Amino acid sequence: MENVLRPLIVVGGSVVLTLLVGWAVDRLMRQADERHPETPLWGLLRRGRIPFQLVLCAAVLRGSYEEAKLFPAHAVGVGRTLSLVLIGSAAWLVIRIAAAIVETSYTRYAAAHRDPARVRRVRTQVTLIQRVVSAIVGVVAVAAMLLTFPPMRAAGASLLASAGIIGIVAGVAAQSTLSNMFAGLQIAFGDMVRLGDVVVVNGEWGTVDEITLTFLTVRTWDERRFTMPVSYFTSQPFENWSRGGVQMTGTVFFQLDHSAPVEEMRGKLRDILRECPAWDGRDYGLAVTDSTASTMEVRALVTAKDADDVWTVRVTVREQMIAWLTTHHPYALPRVNTADALLPPGHPRPNGVDGAPPRNSRGRAVEPPRTGRG
Fold first, then answer.
1. Is this prediction's pTM over 0.70?
2. How do residues 278-326 score in pLDDT, each as one tens digit?
3. Of 1, 34, 313, 337, which has the fewest beta carbons less than 10 angstroms from its beta carbon?
């Protein structure tokens, strides 16, 4: 009877104690979250209740397993399994706590500062810090698990002695990976590019959607995703439209006839912008910037508060200006000139000009060839 009651009491008591303590701690954090709604810390810490209960249960069972006398022939294996569970759940709990602290710090900073650029910079930094902490905790947890096996402890001295050679080999083999990791830290703390920045990379315009230690994702306007190593942004030039402010200046070019009414186009541009909600009212302008033998280039200058709005203003100006020219000034649109060129005064006219029949080398009129039957 004792062989049955003892394991039942030890194991059952450990489970019941874990559930009671976990419920009490979760209730206290819930009450703290209700009393302090200005901070999300307590609500975020509640996400760690499962690893906390695993840590508590594994620790209690590991300490009381010898008293249970359950499976004495496999005591070493069961104890080692409980140790592995304890180490893994403890690492899980540490990662959850670190994530809660980092997220709370970012939330407080975002609430206290209204500058979107600074908020995005801090968001990028805390995200990479959280990833670095998770990676370090994971590596330490795996190393601690491996050290629970006696052969690994015996080989520890030789592993430390050869750590320099292994480090050199690993550095050469993973050169690109290490360079990307250092580039990720450089981007995070060097404030080169941030989450939410509008960038132009390889001629593609998009928004930075994700930044990790090794790669960066850019979401284009048509919902495509470009994934590239972060080392690209430390070694290649790129455009960051959000750097130094998000206000943008856009241009719209028109190829028109030389007779286009430029002054009237300036007034129409002003009317179009006044009716466009995306225009921020800072500046506008219209000027002739180039001229060719058949057309002239007219540039309209507009401003907006960000890249999305400047795109809206540009397409609005282009559509409405072309429609207005087509309706009221169709002569201003570019066309192919098929009229005869004007000659200088006194210049002899060639044969066949102004209705005169063409003549041959002897001066006789040449009739045009007939077409059709008859």
1. no
2. 998 888 999 999 988 888 999 999 998 887 888 899 999 999 999 999 9
3. 1
